[in-house]
From TrEMBL:
Pfam families, sorted: COB_C, COBRA
GO CC terms of this entry: plasma membrane; side of membrane
Stated name of the protein: COBRA-like protein
Organism: Quillaja saponaria
Chloroplast among keywords: no
Domain of life, per lineage: Eukaryota
InterPro entries given in the database record: COB_C, COBRA_pln
Domain COBRA C-terminal residues, every copy: 230-419
Length: 447
């Protein structure tokens, strides 16, 4: 049943991808399961491997793999929670910690690390002592996107669980998994027992395996994350002086009273750029009220090529976007010749279509998008080869169909506001119904 549902959803996603429409697939197996047609297999998989039994429980390695191509977990990092099936406690954690200990008053002698029925675990910060570290831990909960850096798309910790089962038959799987990354948006399915993970020794001559393994799959939904978009797109071109701005209130104007003007004295105060614990933004006052604006400028036209300039501007005074990603969908991205000052990777979720690409900053150069201000922008240019059968500047063809920043879809301007080719008014008139043209000529004759 699951295979059929997955197949039909992928087939539907392919169709909707072609027409630049997004859908959310809802299954009865989980409360809300998100489906992204640009990344149909993207998810975060949390794997529990029981490595050894203890007198009253087990020691498990918990590994979080981010299989999303362009959506990462940024600072202040992930938060993982669950509900124990019985009366389990956490004796110790290596490479992470729980945010609360809970009531451990009934224990004498050794006190557990956490006694809560619903523990909440966070990653450790970089620089912790070596004896507190575990493989792929201690990055402050920051996890890169799989398409950007697979080696950094993993986070892990080790947990010793007590008052649990001591065999495969007596262990009860935790329930009600939750994942914040760092805010809401992820929905996790139930834990499922899977074939035990196999491990190779360093000399790769011996294979061992976990005593028991279960997986938890979490998917992302932008609708759960926030009610308004978090970015917007503006357009301009060399063939038209008109600049198409972001739509007004593209990201909601409910926080218009709390925005800051670019010349405000508040910005000179010490600590104004310090992020808050709840990640609340401090936005520059704009008509769109978005923390991020992406500008797509059609710059030059050559005989066999055309050139585009992309600018990303940060209007949030309290946020540095590290490991940022930008995804664009455009039919000519199948002929990208050169990308300047950004790294680029084509995204091909469907083998027959190559119209989507991911852009991200070069390491140690522009992989951090600074907070609002003079340094709060990054820019790049693309050189694209023309396909003479499809290339045109008419009817907004030169502008992207979809734009994502950090995995969230940005709001585009209405199509009728796109920069148009000069002297195109008469051509546009010809597409009107004949009766309108006839009526127009009659009125002119009468006049």
């Amino acid at each position: 049943m699951q295979v059929n549902v997955h197949f039909h959803c992928n087939l539907l996603g392919l169709v909707l991808h072609i027409f630049s429409v997004q859908i959310i697939c809802v299954f009865f197996l989980s409360i809300v399961a998100a489906y992204d047609p640009l990344d149909p297999t993207g998810n975060i998989t949390i794997k529990w491997d029981i490595m050894s039994w203890t007198p009253d429980g087990y020691v498990a390695a918990v590994t979080m793999n981010n299989f999303q191509m362009y959506r990462h977990i940024m600072s202040p990092g992930w938060t993982l929670g669950w509900t124990w099936a019985k009366k389990e406690v956490i004796w110790s954690v290596v490479g992470a910690q729980t945010t609360e200990q809970g009531d451990c008053s009934k224990f004498k002698g050794t006190i557990p690390h956490c006694c809560k029925k619903t523990p909440t675990v966070v990653d450790l910060l970089p620089g912790v002592p070596y004896n507190q570290q575990f493989t792929n831990c201690c990055k402050g909960g920051v996890v890169a996107a799989w398409g950007q850096d697979p080696s950094a798309a993993v986070s892990a910790f080790q947990v010793s669980v007590g008052q649990a089962g001591t065999s495969n038959k007596t262990v009860k799987l935790p329930k009600n998994f939750t994942l914040l990354g760092p805010g809401p948006g992820y929905t996790c399915g139930p834990a499922k027992v899977v074939p035990s993970t196999a491990f190779l020794t360093p000399d790769r001559r011996r294979k061992t395996q976990a005593l028991m393994t279960w997986n938890v799959t979490c998917t992302y939904s932008q609708f759960l994350a926030r009610k308004n978009p978090s970015c917007c797109v503006s357009f301009s071109s060399f063939y038209n002086d008109t600049i198409t701005p972001c739509p007004s209130c593209a990201c909601g104007c409910q926080n218009k009273k709390n925005c800051v003007k670019s010349d405000s004295k508040i910005l000179s105060m010490v600590g104004v750029n310090t992020p808050r614990k709840d990640n609340a933004p401090l936005l520059q006052c704009t008509h769109h009220m978005c923390p991020i604006r992406v500008h797509w400028h059609v710059k030059l036209n050559y005989k066999d090529y055309w050139r585009v300039k992309i600018s990303v501007t940060n209007f949030n005074y309290k946020m540095n976007y590290t490991l940022w990603t930008l995804v664009a969908q455009h039919p000519n991205l199948n002929n990208v010749t050169q990308v300047f000052s950004f790294d680029y990777k084509p995204l091909v979720p469907y083998q027959s279509i190559n119209d989507t690409g991911m852009f991200y900053g070069m390491k140690y150069f522009n992989d951090i998008l600074m907070e609002a201000g003079p340094l709060g922008n990054v820019q790049s240019e693309l050189l694209l080869e023309k396909d003479k059968d499809t290339f045109t500047f008419k009817q907004g063809w030169a502008f992207p169909r979809k734009v994502y920043f950090n995995g969230d879809e940005c709001m585009l301007p209405p199509p009728d506001t796109y920069p148009f080719l000069p002297n195109s008014a008469y051509k546009n008139l010809l597409v009107y119904p004949k009766w309108i043209l006839t009526l127009l000529f009659v009125l002119i004759a009468i006049w």
